[in-house]
Amino acid sequence: xxxxxxxxxxxxxxxxxxxxxxxxxxxxxxxxxxxxxxxxxxxxxxxxxxxxxxxxxxxxxxxxxxxxxxxxxxxxxxxxxxxxxxxxxxxxxxxxxxxxxxxxxxxxxxxxxxxxxxxxxxxxxxxxxxxxxxxxxxxxxxxxxxxxxxxxxxxxxxxxxxxxxxxxxxxxxxxxxxxxxxxxxxxxxxxxxxxxxxxxxxxxxxxxxxxxxxxxxxxxxxxxxxxxxxxxxxxxxxxxxxxxxxxxxxxxxxxxxxxxxxxxxxxxxxxxxxxxxxxxxxxxxxxxxxxxxxxxxxxxxxxxxxxxxxxxxxxxxxxxxxxxxxxxxxxxxxxxxxxxxxxxxxxxxxxxxxxxxxxxxxxxxxxxxxxxxxxxxxxxxxxxxxxxxxxxxxxxxxxxxxxxxxxxxxxxxxxxxxxxxxxxxxxxxxxxxxxxxxxxxxxxxxxxx
Length: 449
Prior knowledge:
- The chain is of the alpha/beta class.
- It folds into two domains: 32-62 and 343-448, Aspartate Aminotransferase, domain 1 (Alpha-Beta Complex), CATH 3.90.1150; 70-341, Aspartate Aminotransferase, domain 2.
- It has helices spanning 5-15, 23-26, 55-58, 67-77, 91-103, 117-134, 154-158, 163-166, 182-190, 195-211, 237-247, 270-273, 300-304, 326-341, 344-359, 398-408, 430-445, and strands at 34-38, 41-44, 49-52, 108-114, 141-145, 176-179, 215-221, 224-225, 231-232, 251-255, 279-282, 294-299, 368-374, 377-382, 411-412, 419-422.
- The strands form four sheets. The chain has a seven-stranded mixed beta sheet with strand order 4-12-11-10-7-5-6, sandwiched between helices. It has a four-stranded mixed beta sheet with strand order 1-2-3-15.
- The longest helix is centred in the N-terminal third of the chain and has 18 residues, at 117-134.
- It starts with a helix and ends with a helix.
């Protein structure tokens, strides 16, 4: 059935409630409705072409309409689309679990599936809490970071720390203790990221762990607080956290939902710190941006705490209808094969270097207050007054205005407030990287006109 574009636009505004969107404003503006994609490009219902510079919310890895990923879905569809994993299994889910264990940090030997990154974190929180209960210990508090973001389910919101997103639900949340955001703290107290600031932050955590013996787990995004505006950690911070959690006998949950599958230059950022957490949460790029799938990886020690006779009721009471979905697991396996066959991570290295060099140019712009990068992830913070560090008023939607200007030249971006986020597909060419950056520089420059 072919529906004309104007009707689609009308129905979109009338019936579709969009996530993280002020629908009053959305219904007053012209919005993109995408119809197809190829490689790093998307086409809207009017045939206009855009570079997908945010990887369709950070999940597309190898480009749209990839032949191998398409084929994996088609071949699995000919067999079966979905079978339950409650008390039974399926071939793609088994093969993917083995593959994820093979490529993850040593010691993460068990895989629990779900449908999105927030639930992967939710599962880790519940597993960690339940682990201590099964061991006969009454632990209730989690340690997390201010400016943290782990998703929008209630547990994930509880360990989040962005008041704009999470403050409304405060009365629904469980107890947490928050350390300061590493990037913001280091910038304010130490003038920038440094080993001295790392030591300072770790002393704070050590004092907390010494004082509180009821800590279930420390919960961290991996390497960078992405949703807070791309705020990277100081060097060695995560390694130090891992050492402290081991010393004080608590658990470490690492959220690799945004950073996993090559975004930081390695398959997982944990590799760069040389650590194995007790839980590693995966999502977004796990299927190459094709289907909803996520996973929580954990250790044999955690898994073994849930073993017992049926009547003991020690098993993990969690699962959804589509847990371990056959189609999603099949395309995820193909996604990981593409990483190997196309040498994606190896080819990414010069692109990360190019991004690093080109980002230096943005410091020259009048309304750029900060530029931040980790691997192939970057954030450019817009400010009203550079010398004073004065932000634009929230209601002015400056970041969205810049993104709208970028659309005029065929670049699709979605900012985080007034931070212009760059999360391009890993396969993007250097030519297209330069085009995205040139377009963004031009759009930010238009703020002064």
